[in-house]
Amino acid sequence: MANPKYKTPRSKTRKRRSHLRLELPAVVSCPHCKEPKLQHHVCKSCGQYNGREIFKLEA
Question: Do strands 27-29 and 36-38 pair parallel, antiparallel, or not at all (unpaired)?
């Protein structure tokens, strides 16, 4: 059996798991319609990306 002889300290465990934290998505405002959108994604409200119209929205 490969049981540890001593209990691992909390600080060592937490240092090891420091990269497992949750991160919020990067939300920015669309330069065309000012609606919130994800970075490097097409805006869902106006259909533009990088100053170009990618798709047209139907009313």
Answer: antiparallel
